[in-house]
Structure formats: C-alpha cells, structure tokens
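Exam revision sheet. Question 4 asks you to relate a sequence to its structure. Input first:
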Amino acid sequence: MSTAEYSPRIAHRFRGYLPVVVDVETGGFEARTDALLEIAAVTLRMDEAGVLHPGETVAAHVEAFTGANVDPKALAFNGIDPGHPFRMALPEGEALQKVFSVVRRAVKQSGCKRAILVGHNAFFDLGFLNAAVARVGSKRNPFHPFSTFDTVSLAGLAYGQTVLAKAAEASGMRWDSGAAHSAIYDAERTAELFCTIVNLWAEITPERPWEISEPERE
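Answer key, structure tokens:
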C-alpha cells in the first residue's frame, strides 16, 4: 500500500464524494449466501492541475463466513483456494475494518463527505460489500449505500467496450490475463480505466462546470 496526498480539489469534481474503486472475488453470485473471499480498494486523488490518479491500494483475503456457499465453478474462475495456509485470510469484520480505515482517511483528507464506489459491474461489488457490512453490523461504512460509478457504462461510451480487459486495452493500457481475477489486479486496472476516462472528458470539456460550484454537503 502506498501513501497518497489528497487535494481537496477532488471534492468539487464529484459533488463532495470521493471515488474509490472496489473489486471483490467471491464464492458465487449471490451476495447474501455466497462467500466474500477477497476485497481490494483503490482510493483516487486529484493533482493541482485537476488530473485524476490512483492513490492508495488496500486489500484483504477474507474468511468465508459461517454457512457461506462456495461454488467450485467460482473458485475455478478466480483461482482462489479458500483453505490455502498462506492466504492469511481475515474474518469479514477485520477485513472490512482494514479497508474502511484507509477509505475513511482518504475521505477526510480530501475534504469529501463520503466515498462512492467505482466498479466494473459496480452493483456486484456493492452488493457483496453491503451484505458483508450487514453481517458484521458495521456502523462506519464510508460508502454511499446505493450510488455508484460503473466503468462498464463509461467504457462502453468512451471505447465501445464493456469487458474490462478489452476496455483497458482500448484505452491504451496493457492487460495481463494471467494476473486478472485477483481483487488487487482488477481494482487497480479499473482505477486506471476510470481515471483515463475522467481525464479524457476533462480535456474535451473546456468549461468544466464542476469547478464552478461548491461541493454539496449533507
């Protein structure tokens, strides 16, 4: 994990929300019954020129909650061995606390009011995040409970591609298929993709209306 400097300028760009990219790897598709096995988050920062960059990465391997379903087909896809002795997996509550502490610090330092999840098929990542929060009874979830930025839609608009690997390549990024489907790799590539699209939009929008008004506060 790297340490990033957070300029309050980013609070003007997204109505006071700090975009944070999240990727999860799971034991299936149903957030309420299937295991959360990995989670990674990448905070975003904006420099003094208004250019968006990836900030810090934080991640955790997660122990399947008691009674969780783990589909062998899902494990074949993401390559996770839940019982591997070197996973160093954390209980869900500890894993969320590890991620949330970094996100909360970034939100505070950037002058934002809350984090907003960025994801590729963001509903999937937010669904598993919210389900885990509900299971552990976390009272300090820094993320908006339902609003997201989805790079599927943004990449479809910008590049005509909706698959993460193809969208990344279309944007000029290199894609390592052997490293894909780990939470850290997918989150960091999604963060690069989101930053590229946002920065591209800023280049072709000279008036930049988001810089005119103050960020909203709750």
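Marking note for examiners. The radius of gyration is 17 Å.
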